[in-house]
Amino acid sequence: MNSSESDGVEKPYSDGIGAIFEVVHRLRAPNGCPWDREQTHESLRPYLLEETYELLEAIDSGDDAKMMEELGDLLLQVAMHAEIAAEEERFDAKQVSEAVAAKMVKRHPHVFGDVSVANADEVLRNWEHQKMREARKA
Length: 138
Known about the structure:
The structure is a single chain. The protein is mainly α. 69% of the residues lie in helices and 3% in strands. It is built from seven helices and two strands; from the N terminus they run ββααααααα. The protein has a two-stranded antiparallel sheet with strand order 1-2. The chain is globular. The N and C termini lie far apart (40 Å).
């Protein structure tokens, strides 16, 4: 953990994308925040929806600072849901990240494989075909 000072407050987390996951883990720890510890997937549903709408508004406004803030709020929701699932021994943030990365690689064979595409329309057709193949396997 990085304990450097930032704005006069000790920063008890590392730099980068993992920071919010570290913060949420600590917030939900036994000595963490009572409100955060009480949250469930169900209790967080309204916040997930609210933050999504706020991000859409920020995108529409073209305000980069607001968009960054709302992306962060949405990432917080992802971190909370992943942490709750980890506590329930269902899955964790690492598994979420690895699964979505693997899905993106699989759905982009024109980037990560040997498939050729002529344009974005072909990419979308391939994407839909891949999704159908995945659905049949599920």
